[in-house]
Amino acid sequence: MGDLRINARLDEQSQQDLQFLQHELSEYSVTDVVKYSLRKAAQDLKIATEVDRQKQIWRSSGFIGGFAGPEDLSANYKQYIREILDEKYPHQGSDC
Questions:
Q1: Which residues, including other chains, have CB under 8 Å from residue 67's CB and lie 6 or more apart?
Q2: Quick check: pTM over 0.70?
Q3: How far apart are CA 60 and CA 48, in angstroms?
Q4: What is the pLDDT of residues 66-79, one digit of tens each?
């Protein structure tokens, strides 16, 4: 595939974004900045798509959500560990 020439209309925000990128990447031409932006956007989307695909594989396997437990376990795990240890090793009346 050969070079593709594009002509695009940019809204004000997109113009500001392009100007910012040109300023930050001052050694690059507008063409290079657009290529960089397209490459970065495509790369980010490919990664997000792969992450979603991996999540679906885990869900389909039954591994995620594969055990019973409190719904807030990830947020309150310290409390649950403390309760389990208190049950296993009850306080013996010392000042500890």
A1: none
A2: no
A3: 18
A4: 667 788 888 998 99
